[in-house]
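Appendix B: a complete holo record

For completeness, this appendix reproduces one full record from the ligand-bound portion of the collection. The bound molecule is MTE. The inputs are the chain sequence and the ligand SMILES; the output is the full three-dimensional arrangement of the complex, encoded as structure tokens. No fields have been trimmed.
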Amino acid sequence: MLVHARRGWEIPERDFTPEAVYRNRRRFLQTALGAAGSLALAGAGPWENAWAAAPDPWLTGVRPLEAARNQEYKVDRPITRKDIAARYNNFYEFSLDKARVWPLAQAFKIEPWEIEVKGQVEKNLKFDAADLLRRMPIEERVYRFRCVEAWSMVIPWVGFPMKKFIEWVKPLSSARYVRMVTFHRPGVTPGVVRQPHYAWPYHEGLTMAEAMNPLTMLVVGMYGHTLPKQNGAPLRLIVPWKYGYKSIKSIVRFEFTNKRPPTFWNRAIPDEYGFTANVTPKVPHPRWSQATEKVVETGERIPTLPYNGYGKYVEYLYE
Ligand SMILES: Nc1nc2c(c(=O)[nH]1)N[C@H]1C(S)=C(S)[C@@H](COP(=O)(O)O)O[C@H]1N2
Ligand SMILES: [Mo]
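The structure of the chain with MTE bound, as generated:
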């Protein structure tokens, strides 16, 4: 979210390149771009060259992952072009600049990917993302996606209801919330190095009732493929009636708890980003209106819907 006014102690990203990050950039340019031709290497400097020459995000690391579309969830707008969805990203671990995320994200490894389940569960568990995928019944769902910054997309996700996952891991009845945490590898995430004031690793949480709602998905793919790294491979959350920041990417830990867990954006700017974060057109962000949203693909402004259009599925949670 490139949205908050810069505080005095925040350093503009472009003005600051720690040595290690700079070296990582060079390495990225040499490895990831090697196959794509050496245009960018001529100067090895301007990122613009790197982006122009970088491989298509759909050619780096994604595999076909087809699943039958669930026809219950219809969206009355066109699906966003997949190259836009894969190149316009919020993933602060890599960069605050949406267009820089995807080339930078190619550097992190997603295999193997250990996931841990702990806290108030029958039994602590550790397993690889690939094992989880084999266990869960996958389907495709086309959902609206609305960022708190007031842009939106429509994306065909591939994944499974979080409810199925919860039934498998068996939290205790005392559990009232599920906390989720993103991987923490500062060596491959320049944004973490440059933004040390944030409470890394990224963390989010839902009430158990929200997590068990049929809309809530754990996502492993999009557009008939496994997730690109920049979109949160190998496993992310999608809660379509909430602002995008709830939909945590690249999850490594689920923790069941009876206390409401602190969350990344709520900690960073508590008066702007809440825990619940339901899409609500009538409640403006302190610095802009939430009444409309910009369709990323066309720039068109359309009205924002309460609960992002999913009221009939979720209103009962908040009455
Ligand atoms: N780990 C992590 N998860 C994250 C974020 C992030 O910076 N780090 N950004 C959030 C925000 S603000 C949005 S809008 C969505 C963006 O997802 P996308 O890039 O796949 O569209 O991811 C969310 N999940
Ligand atoms: Mo967002």
